[in-house]
Amino acid sequence: MEKLVIIGSGPAGLTAAVYAARANLNPLLIAGNLPGGLLTQTSEVENFPGFPEGINGFELMMNMQTQAEKFGARIEIATVSKVELSDGGTQQITLDSGEVIAAQALIVATGASPRWLGLESEERLKNCGVSACATCDGAFFTDQKVVVAGGGDSAMEEALFLTKFASQVTVVHRRNELRASKIMAERAMNHPKIDFVWNAQITEIMGEDEVSGVKVKDNASGEEKIIPCQGVFVALGHSPSTELFKGQLEMTDHGFIKLQHNTSLTNLAGVFAAGDCADERYRQAITAAGSGCRAAIDAERYLG
Length: 304
What we know:
about 25% helix, alpha/beta
């Protein structure tokens, strides 16, 4: 029987592991299929306190993992396929391998996953020119034209990063103004390689075996046109990775885990949540880390 299991290895999960390990809880962290979480796919993190010159996202997460392991946290590279949760009892976690782990307490820090356009052509051309990670795939599009779908901070970050490689970056946004923060919007709109198609949406990604362009529909006139490109980067934000817990943990209408009274407590005693899976408002690395600290402290007090 484990004292504490943490599911998720992003800023929330690893911070929880640091605090829990220092409290002698000997936590077991299940890292999932992307150890370090989505932040490992971010090239430069400029707004995490303590790094005035910025830090590579992968490096930041590996530092967190090293720190957690230094204090005794155990990291297992595995994916959870099923959970059986109880109110104040034993929490059962089943891994893809079939192994069942029992725990006295559980911290859910599963984060969020990319939101896609939902097109058949998008699914067919994933990894053949369609991507949700410019940091991962941007270098494949050196001196080529690419399209970014979205209008938030993540879309502007993707677009700006892609200018390091692409000859032209076209941002397609369904509204007539960006949702991104002012500083990110200004950086993108002032960049000579980035142009914008406003009030429009991508209706099809063109190409058989690789991307050759996108079909874009004007939301006002209904007029369609094709934008030639070799890559499409979907940057529509993320959905909480909480499917495993549906029907067991209380959630918002958008699938985020509900927390009790400004704590990390869920509706089940002994089950706690932290990070983007329970954060419908902020979804930042630093707020995720802070909530991981909170979850570990709450779990320690529960176990005590």
